[in-house]
Amino acid sequence: MAILDILRLPDPRLKQVSSTVERFDAALRDFVADLEETRLDGPAAVGIAAPQVGRFQRIVIVDVSGRPKTPNHGYLVLINPEILHWEGFAMGREGCLSVPDYTGNVMRATQIRLRAQDLEGQTHEYDMEGYEARAVQHEIDHLDGLLFVDRVVSRRTDLYRRKVYAPRGGQGR
Ligand code: NI
After folding, report:
1. How far is the CA of 84 from the centre of ligand 1 (A)?
2. Which residues contact 41 (CB under 8 A, 6 or more apart)?
3. Which of 36, 69, 98, 128 has the smallest CB count inside 10 Å?
4. Would residue 139 show up in a list of annotated catalytic residues for this protein?
């Protein structure tokens, strides 16, 4: 197990599109264990995607079970995830390990139907809503080279500098 280095904006590798996972082997399981350890390091994130640690394969982990009163499926390793159906939309605040200094308001579908493989390559389908659906959409964006800052309507009004990281006299925009 190891904590992996996280790529941060403006690293151009974050724009890379990740490739499909084809081998469901011990190396994949070892990588996912490291990815999970990395997700839990520091203030635990609700999700992480493989390209955030420089591995450009379609692998994400999502776990919103620590958030109260949020319908969820617990800890999920989602390999080659694909959204089959979207419904509704809502604005919500998002953060990202690759964008440590900002949060932002992003429009996302409120309900999704998701298909993904597990670590053994078995295919599952999930109906998700609310914060879990939002987290999955955020992580899948990473697989397509997109960050939440690419989705805000206005970088001037919809991005917020995290106070805890704000340098003295720094200005959010
Ligand atoms: Ni992210």
Report:
1. 21
2. 3
3. 69
4. yes
Q: Distance from the CA of 147 to the center of ligand 1, in angstroms?
A: 7
* C-alpha 167 – ligand 1 centre gap (Å): 22
Catalytic residue among 22, 37, 120, 139: 139
Q: Coil, strand or helix: which one is 149?
A: helix
Per-residue pLDDT at 154 exceeds 90: no
Model pLDDT for residues 29-77, shown as the tens digit of each residue: 999 999 999 999 977 899 999 999 999 999 999 999 999 899 999 999 9
Under a CB-based contact definition with an 8 Å cutoff, are residues 115 and 84 in contact?
Answer: yes
Strand arrangement, sheet containing 123-129: 47-49, 59-62, 76-87, 111-117, 123-129
